[in-house]
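User: Okay, second chain of the day. Same drill as before: sequence in, structure tokens out.
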Amino acid sequence: MRNPLLLPIYVPTLLLAFCTGMLIPVMPLYAGSFNVSYGLVGLAVGSLGIGTLVGDLPTGVLLGRLGERRTMQIGLVSMALCMFALSQSRSFPELVIYNFLAGVGSALWNISRHMYLANASASGQRGRSIAMFGGINRIGSFLGPVVGGYIGDTFGLGAPFLLYAIVAGIGFLFPTFFAVDHPREPGGHELQRASWLTHVSALWRVARTEAHVLTPAGIGQLFAQMVRSGRQIIVPLYGADMLGLDVQTIGWIVSISSFVDMSLFYPAGFIMDRFGRKFAYVPCFLIQGIGMALIPFTAGFSTLLGAAALMGFGNGLGSGTMMTLGADLAPRQSMGEFLGIWRLVGDVGQTGGPIITGSIADALSLPVATFVIAGVGVLAALTLGLFVPETLNRPTEARAVAD
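Assistant: Same drill. Structure tokens below.
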């Protein structure tokens, strides 16, 4: 690892990505075990994202007040406690509430590590640094689903959540002993001692002054995260309910797709830094839309695996793209506030994906819902490709103007 400052986020990110991967084939089936509809299964899966939505803007404010290190610590402890509670759920409302609270903790962890990564990485190598971060996420996601499927099949669907709680507790040790807070601008540590009102005002000021940037890029990210999260509910449910596959087989499909996904993080970073961000994220979401559209034509394990692997290939091309785009666009003096808003927009899409998918599946059918999410992937590619400017050289140009 070239930059030791990244150790406090790379290691817990790998651990938690593994745990998140474990839950991909398990969570929809765990929610379904309470004998609820597709729409409520989507709500259960999406409740994590709803909690993240609620936590995004307060996290942007909290970062300015507490700093990156303490915010990461609070997030990891919150996730550990909520995952333990999830493992003990005895009713569907309990499951939704605990997953919602885990989402709030996830917002604290995700935005604080994003800001830490942006501050610890040289802007000229930001694409590769964040793509490496995305690759670490994907390595965990590759290993997690098959393990989660095995544990859920062998020890019960609540067992992967208990393991998640233990691993999150271990992850807490890394920011505690290795992380350092970065000043938001030279000599800017005093900003962390400002009043809460100052930070809230900064949040509003960023939303107003950066609206011209946030609107097109935010809409593109909204669609992008919808197709990414939609596939996490469509593949397990289609495999189980339409093709009759068991949870362990579905875990293999998700893991193999994740293997394809994770193998592309280095090419994705190279493409972003060498040719431009658009050359990574436009094909990323276009290919995912095509792969999603192929799912209703699958007839068994091998064909569903092929469609899932194609989506994994597309997603791999976009490793770290949305985080890189957000870091490129963020004003240095208000990075925490900007990333809080940026994350909020993305999390709206991430939350909406499972809920919209489940609702359409209830009203019409699961294949129809799959085609809708496929169309969202195409919209993501078109919006980001046509209406968002290339940001590869923006940090260099900003520095030149400042000098």
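The chain is about 80% helix and 0% strand.

User: Thanks, on to the next one.
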